[in-house]
């Protein structure tokens, strides 16, 4: 059974649902909007030292976080739980990396070296593939290029850094073991994650129907967690640029912690 019309989440009846949804969680959506504007004010007219790997990388990571932060809000606003969870996991990965760079001076170089790891992996996958559609591409990757890619990685002793290690080096191993791990179900479409589309009859001990449509069951938890991380990221990036937004971010963090205290979900 569907709770929206044939337009799905794109238009039509969902628009009325969104208005009602935002009204029911007005205070939280307002706080998210205010934090979003503060983040944009930080980036507005920002002068980045193009000779500083730290400033360039952290600015790019912060911009990525902002995009994913807004994506999470849009998905949750529409009641799209699966989409919101998937976007939020990507958001967490960007957060892990920003915080790891801030807390571990050695991590910045290792993170940038991951470009070579990814490049080498891509080239090797193409070369080893037997797919006909990649035949021409395989020809273009001559042996010299392949050796150069692999040789660079081995010569510099570059190793792949897992997202789990990134979280640990950021001091966020608890977040990785809880929030991040739970979100993997949505990303990989596990059977457990599909339960949300089923209506279970406790009396009959069986699935009685299927459901599809918007829901606000994770609105407070997901938005408050996203807001908490964004406030922390804003405080961190401000410190990297020698600016103080501690009090501003503390105000936002207190708001989101209060929401998390009233619902089930991860708390920092």
- Counting copies of identical and different chains, the oligomeric state is single chain
The helix/strand class is mainly alpha
Write down the secondary-structure element order. HHHHHHHHHEEHH
Helix content: 55-70%
The portion of residues forming beta strands comes to: under 5%
State Rg.
22 Å
Can you summarize the main beta sheet?
2 strands, antiparallel
Q: Return residue spans where pLDDT drops below 50 for at least 5 consecutive residues.
A: none
Number of helices: 11
Largest sheet: spatial strand order: 1-2
Give the rounded overall mean pLDDT. 88
Gap from first CA to last CA = 37 Å
Number of E-state strands: 2
Give the overall shape, derived from the CA principal axes.
globular
